[in-house]
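Troubleshooting log. The previous run stalled partway through. Resubmitting the same three chains, unchanged.
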Amino acid sequence: MFSMKSKYSVFSIIKNAFSYHENWGKAWKDPTPKKEYDAVIVGGGGHGLATAYYLAKKHKMNNIAVVEKGWIGGGNTGRNTTIIRSNYLWDASAGLYDHALKIWEGLSQELNYNVMFSQRGVMNLAHNLQDVRDLKRRTHANRLNGIDAVYLSTEEVKKFCPIINTSPDIRYPVLGGTLQRRAGTARHDAVAWGYARGADAMGVDIIQNCEVKGIKRNGNSVEGIETTKGFIKTKKVGVVAAGHSSVIANMAGLRLPLESKPLQALVSEPVKPIIDTVVMSNAVHAYVSQSDKGELVIGAGTDDYVSYTQKGSHQIVEGTLNAILELYPIFSRMRMLRQWGGIVDICPDASPILSKTSIKGLYFNCGWGTGGFKATPGSGDLFAHTIANDEPHKLNAAFNLNRFVSGDLVDEHGAAAVAH
Amino acid sequence: MFLINCPYCGERDQQEFKAGGEAHIERPKQPTELSDDEWAEYLFMRKNIKGVQFERWNHAHGCRKWFNMVRDTSNDEIKAIYKMGEKPPSQ
Amino acid sequence: MTKNLRVKSSEYIDETNRISFKFNGKTYHGFKGDTLASALLANDVHLVGRSFKYHRPRGIMTSGSEEPNAIVQINPGTNRTEPNVRATEVEIYEGLDASSQNCWPSVEFDIGGINNFLSPFFPAGFYYKTFMWPASFWEKYEFFIRHSAGLGKSPTSSDPDIYDHRNVHCDVLVVGAGISGIQAAKISAKNNFKTLLVDEKNELGGSTIYENNEFNKINNKTPSEWLKKEIEELKGIKNLEIKTRTSVAAYHQYNYLLARENLTDHLDAKDKTNKIRQRLLKIRAKKVILATGALERPLIFNNNDRPGIMLSSAVKKYSEFYGVACGSKNLFFTNNDSAYESALSLYNKGINVEAIIDIREQSESKIVKKVKEAGIKIYWSHTIVDTAGYKRLNSVSIMKLSNDGTSVTGSKISIWCDCLGVAGGWTPAVHLYTQSGNKLKFDEEKKVFLPNQNTSEQISVGSCGGDFKIDEIIKNLNHKLKDTLNIKETDLDNIKVEIDQENSKRNIWLLPSDKPLGKTKPFVDYQNDATAKDIKLALREGFRSIEHVKRYTTTGMGTDQGKLGNMHALGIIADTAGVKMGELGTTTFRPPYTPLTFGTIVGRNVGKFFDIFRRTPMNDWHVENKAQFENVGQWKRAWYYPFNGETMHQAVQRESKAARESAGILDASTLGKIDIQGSDASEFLNRVYTNAWSKLAIGKCRYGLMLNEDGMVYDDGVTTRLGENHYIMTTTTGGAANVLGKLEDYLQTEWPELDVYLTSVTDHYATASLCGPNSKKILKKIIPDLDLSDENFPHMSFKEANIGNIQCRIMRISFTGEHSYEINVQASYGKDLWEKCMEAGQEFNITPYGTETMHLLRAEKGFIIVGQDTDGTMTPIDLQMDWIVSKKKYDFIGKRSLYRSDTMREDRKQLVGLLTDDPNIVLEEGAQIVSELNQNPVEMLGHVTSSYFSPNLNKSIALAVVRGGKDMMGKKLFVPMENKNINVTVANPVFYDEKNERLNA
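Second attempt completed without errors. Output:
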């Protein structure tokens, strides 16, 4: 399928080295929009590009486009802390996220693009007795759902990540934890770029700097979208616009159960390897891993107000670093190199929406909140299925919009860790 | 970090406040009369506006009073603040 | 041996104060006032580090915080070590030990240097294209990539230093104490504005302070002389606070800025202890004046990264300010007049300048003439096409530049040199300006991005605002200050400025070489080894957005965050893609401006100050009696009291038996307590609880369940009617603050018509819960005149009484199922009350019990704990507590949600009891429950929420939520564990005293 493109490998690099890398082709084209497509995906982040990729690959819908307001992968895909795991509590979530994890495991080869999925393990720490119960509950559920997860004692936590301060004298001592070894991190930009390259090779038009301004309807059916590059006719619109989902929904006269809030993250200056896994602590709110470049990658929390500015308040960053130094006092002299914010669309039950809507041909993939990156391949695959068949796959059936009416929520804040 | 002019206390740092989401969503007086759809609309559906939004804030670490704010969520500019029960300023 | 390149005494260097320091294990000497960089240069050390990717030898490039190359590990192997510190920012002190990073075995001979020769195989983004075979090998490749990446080493022990925060409120904050900042601060403070002036350096004056250029005069003095006098005058001005060694890291909205004040890093090692190392200033300013200056940019040419290649302005600063010659054969390479100033500065100090290579065709400015008069050779229209010298520059090759600047012609000339000062023009430091949320505009003539606007809250003055000539700086500063401070006259009105400065410049973002681009290494981002080739490769591969190019090539992502190279990257993209720079935009400048120590951000919030402790008034007693504690929210609660080496299990079994057999006592002070008053108090409770409250008699207590609006159980507790319009509500320990917040929300926003007042009194009362068959006798001993008969003081009722002079509120309520009393006294008498109970109970073997026993005893009775037996997905119906949901009330919080299709399902998870077939097996809390073992995947019906070994029943008991559980009484189920399956039977969740006979025992 990459016949149009040169295959990436160590051999292609060596070959190109002799021509000073002057002959590499474009990873993706820069097309002008056609008048009509069979489907248009709104939003060129990882989820949107993956959706297009699987629509073309599995459902043979090749006359499709991805329209992106800015540059692909520039939203939450390029701003998150890249944690990938599937140790979710509820069956529906476990099914969804483990479906994604299984695709991650072969994604670099599938895309012929190294997404650097690093199965270095993710640990979740317990700091009080209820945390212990909750993590055990989740571990038992994971095991029965076929997801690798083990419960660790404090000593085992220390052994797996020796730099954690497990002293019983700290304010909220580590009472135990869970470990999912198949979990880990990936290179966020590569995911967007790899899917874009793969989709482009199958004929998908990736149209950047193209903002959607309106959704045209004929009665209760979608007819097309108004964009800054003109009207595009299509009967199927899949919206994967993360923090801006409500903005698009409002264009179609829909309201969604979402609030878009600032989420911040930061990195330290790069240092030699010091932490070889991902450690998440929900109770004191500290998430840390180390990038391959050597930066400590630290996830902060969300602010509590709606904002589209990609900026959050300093108190959130301060609170996060307080917790980091509580658990890793050795990092006190490390220095923050860069901090930034994203806009996360949060559902009341901290679970996503992958759903048809009341408007025929309009589909939404949103509400991933703080933890969408990990689901990227699975989300794309299932959303493509939903769009192609006008019917959800059984793995995303629970993540419909009607659950907010019936009350059948998939409440992941109750007992599980936050959805990082 | 916003500087918020609490209508009861004056200008205070954002740290003292909690945001309470979209304003003027009145709790239905007769919930039992509503369909499940209408109740869901009240319970969960939000405008989540990019632009000028009316919202609720609470001076949680101060006077603990709730009040309303008009804020542009696209640049976080606070346009107006008014007390609960007061008429929202026209835009 | 190394040479001493100290050329002339400088007033900023104290040559009487000789300081020894170590670099890479070798001892050197410098003077007080030196930075590590200036001291190394004085010792002729240029090779300081290795680059990130190719491990190329790198030297000191700049004299400030923009340094990309000379970054070192400070005090390696000690608890004060710090990685990635810029040698240009470290003030040397006695005991300083620094070493090179990212090299092995040494900076002189680094194995990683082989990467330089393999660099053709490491183009931008190569790692996205390879390491994919075999599929399972990525983590193995990654191991090597991770270990060769990274720069310095993280500390591995705790930080001995302390950090601090200070909130600052000022009328005017001036950032940067160069000529503009000093004038702005002075004028602001003189006009009675409370003013704070900060600068990252240890000396005021910026670059003007060593500006001895004879061509510019202010009031007939050199700028340097004039500014020194102005600084002298600052001392006496009221309203002005000056902070040096203070770097503004972040500029947030609403003029909220964070600045790091460095207090001890420059002190001798022995003087650092027990002092605050750094302080974070959290500044809220009414107005901010940015005077952050400009950064000189380098030029992008082949092999422009060798040790000895520096910014022209840095060469000048080392000579003028530190009295150090950076080389003995100095050369300059420029596109504007700046290099001539540097050349003259060296010349005037007797330092050899070999030549100036200028890409311009000509310049007729006075300073150029002066340089010509000095006999310094100038190569007009020439460019450097290559440089030589692996660990130290030793020569450059130059050629004539074509008219259009895209190629070179003629023959190659080699010039020997050991230092090359490069001057590519100036880039305004607009980082803080953009962080504040404002937009930039591109000035096509000056080839710089400038602030697009000044507002009433913020102005940019001096070179960061786009003014580079002293006369323009003074003129524009003056009118901007008048506008923003709303003043009519300033000291600047009558200032006389004579200048002879030219701004002629020839801007070429990427200079050509005689070799094809592919064979050259023109570095754009020095630290990350990103070259112009990489940028062009990214464009060729379809990466068009500046953010894409940045991420694909890692340009601008080093520890200097692109302060030197970003403009060139943009320029090369614009030229290559054929777009205008103004349309291309910039990447986002993200905070902090320079890296900010975690410890500084955290300040005092470390160790025991990480979060507040809440302790009950009886806490000391618990500690003295060896209680183990558990954290419940911020509270420390007594968990159990092990006697004589008991295990937790033994202690809990003993406590549980004692409480049922005779008497137990629990510290219940942490329960949330909300005082509710007002004529509508009863109506209010009707609306917030699921059950009815209007008919509750005064002096009676009632258990209430509170839901969220989504119908799920939120909190519970007993509320007592103290008077006609007066109630006291109790909440769970962890939920207290949220419940109060929620109630206030409804009261203020939904039901403002209700006359109700809420006050948190959690901390006002201490509560001892006495329980067990002998509790009544004990209470009688403490309060002999209170009638404790069931008639006078029945279960679920309340009495006020006195213990001696102490007033107390007593509720006869029970969370254990035993006859019990909750005695509330003013918090300050709490310990006294506790001790009285213990004393009175001694004859009944009164046993203090902790939260674990409380949990066990209530589980025997099937009482829920919100948060343990519920998880935000349970309705009261699910808990089989239908009895508490009023059918008569028209509405209460959450009622409507109970009637949605999903919440009405019969097969929801419901609370049940579970008994293990083997009564000695205690289930694990959190374990899952199934009905079929041989399914795949197995269907989980629910989980165990609470589980204990009951000493009173002599068997294990558990509470669980099970799908459809209320109709499963007696059904056999399984709890599948990792290694075994446990057989269980669904049971009534009330395991003990089902008829509640013990309440009145």
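Takeaways: Chain C touches chain A through 108 residues (CB under 8 Å). The two ends of chain C are 96 Å apart (CA to CA).
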